[in-house]
Specification:
By secondary structure, this protein is mainly alpha-helical. Helices cover 64% and strands 0% of the residues. Helix 8 packs parallel to helix 11 and helix 10 packs antiparallel against helix 11. It is globular and about 45 Å long. The chain starts with a helix and ends in a 7-residue tail after the last helix.
């Protein structure tokens, strides 16, 4: 359903420019982000996940079988596509999110995941997430780790994760 909707709204001219800008091996449909989010939300509403495991399966399938970059964006956006899915965001999604960050390893994917779903998990499960966020920052700073490529204005991987953390209480 989602792929058909994306294909119906494809803009080949825009797709070439988007792929060049992102230096992506995956081609683009050429869909602007607001329309892509609207189409993703409509597809998610039409096929609601019954539980977190079903949401994780849908995210993983979209991610792994993506033929276009917008399909990966949709996989990342599924947890916040409608109230029903946002209620399913819990620690069971961590393995999927970790796979997306590790295999995607590009600033647009990592920024979206850390600024949205991981931030939600941190807000809902601070006791479990804070130690994981600290470990992840150390892992991303290791020289053997592939760090997502990003424009200099985006910041370092550590600053992106740090922005997901709630502000420290005044002392």
């Amino acid at each position: 359903v989602l792929r058909a909707a994306f294909a119906a709204h494809a803009d080949p001219t825009r797709a070439v420019a988007m792929q060049a800008y992102m230096k992506s091996a995956l081609p683009f449909y050429g869909i602007a982000a607001p329309l892509r989010r609207k189409l993703t939300r409509a597809a998610a509403t039409a096929q609601l996940a019954s539980d977190t495991a079903a949401l994780a399966r849908a995210m993983r399938t979209l991610w792994r079988e993506a033929r276009y970059r917008e399909e990966r964006y949709a996989a990342i956006e599924l947890p916040r596509s409608g109230r029903a899915h946002s209620k399913l965001v819990n620690l069971e999604l961590l393995p999927v999110l970790t796979e997306m960050i590790s295999s995607g390893a590009w600033w647009d994917f990592c920024d979206d995941i850390s600024g949205n779903t991981l931030a939600t998990l941190l807000a809902r499960h601070p006791r479990e997430m804070k130690p994981l966020a600290a470990v992840r920052m150390i892992d991303l700073s290791m020289p053997t780790r592939t760090v997502p490529r990003r424009p200099p204005s985006m910041g370092t991987p550590m600053s992106i994760i740090s922005r997901s953390l709630p502000p420290r209480a005044s002392r």
